[in-house]
Amino acid sequence: MKIKIAPSILSAKREELQDEVKEIEKIADMVHVDIMDGKFVPPKTFLPNEIEAVKSKLPKDVHLMVNYPIKDGFIDAYVDAGASIITVHQESLDDVGKCIAHIKQRGIKAGITINPPTPVQKIFPYLDQVDMVLIMSVNPGYAGQKFIPEVLEKIKVLRSMKPELDIEIDGGISKTTIKKAAAAGANVFVAGSAIFNKDDRIKAIRELRDALE
Ligand code: DX5
Ligand code: ZN
Question: pTM of the predicted model, to two decimals?
Answer without folding.
Answer: 0.98
